[in-house]
Design goal:
- The complex is a heterodimer of chains A (960) and B (251).
- Chain A has 960 residues and is mainly beta.
- Chain A is 6% helix and 64% strand.
- The longest helix of chain A has 17 residues, at 2-18.
- Mean pLDDT of chain A is 86; it is low at 6-20, 212-217 and 314-323.
- Chain B has 251 residues and is an alpha+beta fold.
- Chain B has helices spanning 2-12, 34-38, 46-55, 57-62, 209-212, 224-240; strands at 24-32, 66-72, 76-81, 100-105, 110-117, 120-127, 134-142, 145-154, 159-166, 185-190, 195-204, 220-222.
- The chains are: A mainly beta (960), B alpha+beta (251).
- At the A-B interface, helix 1, strand 2, strand 3, strand 4 and helix 2 of A face helix 1, helix 3, helix 4, strand 7 and strand 8 of B.
- Strand 8 (126-129) of chain A pairs antiparallel with strand 7 of chain B, so a sheet runs across the interface.
Chain lengths: 960, 251
Amino acid sequence: MRNLFLLGALCLLTMVLHAQTPTRFTLQGRAVDTLNNALPSSTVMLLSPKDSSMVNFGRTDDKGAFTFKNLRAGSYILKVTFVGYIPYNALIKNGDEAVLDLGGLKLKPITKELMEVVVRTAKAPLTIKGDTIEYNAASFKVPPGSTVEDLLRKLPGVQIDQDGNIRAQGQAVNKVTVDGKQFFGSDPKLATKNLQADAITKVQVFNDKTEQAKLTGVDDGKKEKTVNLQLKEEFKKGGFGKLTAGGGPASNNVSARYDVRGNYNKFDSKRQLSAVLLGNNTNQGGLSWNDYQDFRGSNSFNWNDDADFGFSGSGRYISFGDDNESLSIPISGGDNRGFTRNLAGGVNYNYDTKKTKLSSSYFFNQTRQDLFTLREQERFLPGSTLATTDTSTQMNQNANHRVSLRFEKQLDTMQTLIVISNGRLGIGNNNLTSLQRINQSITGGPQQLYSTSNTFNGTQANQFALANTALYRLKFKKKGRSFAASATYQITKNDADLRLQSVNQFFQATTVSDMFRNLNQDQNTDLLSNQYKGSLLYVEPFAKKFYWETFYNFSLRFDEVDRGVFNLNDSRRRVDTLSLYYKNTYTYNRLGSSVRYSFKGLNLSAGLAGQSFVLDGQYSRERSQELTPIRRTYNALIPNVGLNYDLKNNKYLYGGYSVGVQIPASRDLQPVRTITNPLFVTVGNPNLLPGLNKEVQLGFYYFNPGSFINFSSSVNSTWYDNQIVYGQSVDTQTLITTTSPENISGGRSTGTYLNFGFPLKKTKATLNLNGQFSAGRNFTPIRQTRQVGGVTEIVNDVLNDTKNQNISGGARLELTPKEWLTFYGNANVNITNAQYSVNTAQNQTIYTYTYRGDLNLKFPKDIYLNTTLNYRSYINDRLGFRQQVPILNTSLYHIIGKAKRAEVRLSAYDLLNRNVFVSQYAGQNYSQTESIQTLARYFLLSFTYNMRGVTAKMRRQDFY
Amino acid sequence: MYRLLIGLLLLSLPSLVMAQKTEGVVEFRRITHWSKIYTRMTYLSQEQKDRIMLRSKNWEEDNKGEKMKLLFTPTQSLYTYSGDASESEDAGYSWRQSELIMTRNFEKERQTDIMEMLGRVYVVDDSLRTPTWKIGNQIKEVAGYICMKAETTDPIKNQTITAWFAQDIPVSAGPERVSGLPGLILELDLNDGDVEIVAQSVTLRPVTAEELKLPKTKGKKITDADYNAMVKKKIAESVAAHENPYWSIRY
């Protein structure tokens, strides 16, 4: 700053030196109004004529006089200003005289109307150019659709008569120009009657020379009153779009590949219309986060839309175990399993003004996924191990239409109303063919084949869901006091039809009829669910730093389910043991209150809620039969503590204690057997209670922006009360497992997390280290049963206690040494250890190693190369499982043209042709590995056109 | 030259006459338009900038900014947060404000700023520095005062600074690190609307020496040149690292 100033001063000095007289002089004068009255305390400034930078300033005394002594010779702009007067400007140049007296300098007043209406009321800046005063038309509010004439009527000093003739400051306006140019002939009314007011940004009223004078160049002294209208620069208006199309040849036993995606977005300051369309068979998924933001625009993210009020900062208050798909637009980064074909598209329209915000969208997506899976599982029972091999072929095809509407209106400065409506219509089609083989080995003995199952599941489902929410928020004059109310109506209709065909063999059976059991069933399930919810929230501040919050939630849900299972081998006879009709009413009430302390970064809250859950149900084997009632009541007191502390120098501490309530899923409560896999049957439990999980967490975060060092760590622990776990009953003869939910307390899990990142060389190399440790304990009830004369007899009942430890560590290296070279590498190790109380000999450790390198190179002529190598290794020595998956991807691309709007790209995916999806698990009373055949090597040549320009992705930039 | 100007300034300031209009407190609202600042980031593509602009449009409209205050006398000024600046608009949640107190002493020609940045507290202490102002031809009203427009540039952050100063409050003070105009600055616009600091009210009242006193703060003492060098380095580093430097230094 100082240097600049000196430089400026130096310039000034040189300029002055080059001026004619190298002496100093005194400048004096008097500021007066048009009647020669003194204007005391006027501001007097001396500016450099070159760039109007201020050289000196002062104030006039009570006689309006000012003096600048000891001024360097040269020229200056003298500016005298006084509130309410047009600033006086004059170029001053001193001659030989030592004192330059300018005498009385007359300041003309700005008309009172201009001052009051324009400056004070409309808050529009006045620009003074000589004696022209212009102001911002945008400051004068006229209704949308108004013409310039309507606007001019509002302007001070302008009158418009019935015929549309304009008079400004008492004089007739003969000329109206637009951006300084005549508008369609000389009739000034043409412009004012035809132009829309909102196209105008500035109105200038001034005296122009007559056309005659302009033509001849001889100033005839006559002046015409002229109004000039300046058009708005269409600043916030535009459109952009992007199209990528790629294709690749059939090879490697897969058909030709394609990947096409495009979007277009048109917007102005209020409206936004966007469309998106994509299709691919490259496992690249649907909408990415970036696509989603471009599609939804200003409505991408809305806070405060949660209608279920509760303890502040702690998510949803109630969770039903529903497996329905979400109503909101799905964002998928790509499913790396199997072979996937995606088609998606939609239209979104937003209209936003300061008071009203409207957003609407339609979105369609269709996914077809083919999975060829090999799953190997070992399940540990007292004294024996069951080894299941499952080979399956699965086709999932799902299509969804989604409609969303969101309307937000600021009723006044205190009240806001939000109405949200989201709907989904889904059609699903799933086919699964699987071959299962179950072997048993008794305490380390040889494996013996017990049963096989050849099963086909064909599901067709139609779903309809709609959720409507109205949310009202009220603020009060007292800061911090607020009230909110919400109402929600939700309807879900689900009609599913499952065709089950199964051939099962039980090799240890003693009779032929027990040995072969075939199923050929039609399972129809019709579900209708209506839910009504209401919530209230009131916040009262007290003692300056405290807030007292009270909330109430109410929910009433009616479920009606009709499940009919028909035996197709027995002329569609209804199988009563598998069929069920039920009507459930869930009533949920919660009243809670908490006190929060909030001051200078320390936010601490503590509260308590009482909640009651009532299930009133009726069921029977068939709709027409008499219904048996079931009733469950569950009351609980739920405490909540939250801490958020913003410490000095970018350190943050957070923590809390919360209790979550897990309401049993509807199907888990019904006393009915569900068979989709004949070797693995599920039965509901009407005695099931909601589960409680109590969680404590504490975390710390630190970031040093100077050294780019960051550190974070956290600890959390969860205890489960009445945890819903699925107990297993295994028939010792058939090895058919029946699972049923039940409540068990005592499970827990604890985890710690640590991350440390620091630059090896600032802006060039960064290393990030992280470590995690977690341990848990969970229970699985295991019962071995035997059929004795048609009665099930329990021969063994144990509670398996599994202890799990997981440790993982990783390092991430980011190298950005040059603009043309970047490298990202990471290495991760994950070790899981499981100990089973039911069979300690089966205790095992599984390892997963991941290494990844990502290299970006920029070559001359806008050519770029990206290569990634992703190497994963899965090891479970106990199961004798070892699988290495190295994936090498490379793409070479060229950005075309001066405007850089197009790109051509050649990509090769999985060059080594080794892709397979692997997962492994050890927990509960089993361990499992799963391999899914997945799209391997393919090539793609693609072309992109982006109206906003294509930018090479040399850097990873997930967050900005 | 510089000293001379100040001398002239003091000579011609009829401060005694205007005593009633030269002391008081200005309440400001400082609004940072982050999506506009992002459009200045050279490392972002046009596509990314447009995305930020569109998705944050409604948040920008709701941006109520932070409250700041400026205490001023003819010879001194102090600028810092105002009261409950560290609370969310609808209250109930508060965060910690980083240390920020900026003082000017026009008599002793000193400026002392306590600023927390880059993870530590600094005391920037130096002789008074005022930029070269260009005086414009516009007037408008800010908080009931008719103000004139003046412009300058910050060569370190490469920003244009537009100030609106009151014609009839003859005090050279201003918000942030800006001062040196013939009248009190009531509005400041950094880089064409990236950050707007607008006076909400001006209360003329005697300001005590106690109010203008800097609180005792532990911090590293640096000069204005050190501060500028640090800011310049941080901006260069952040842009190289593809990060927004203004998350950790004041815009």
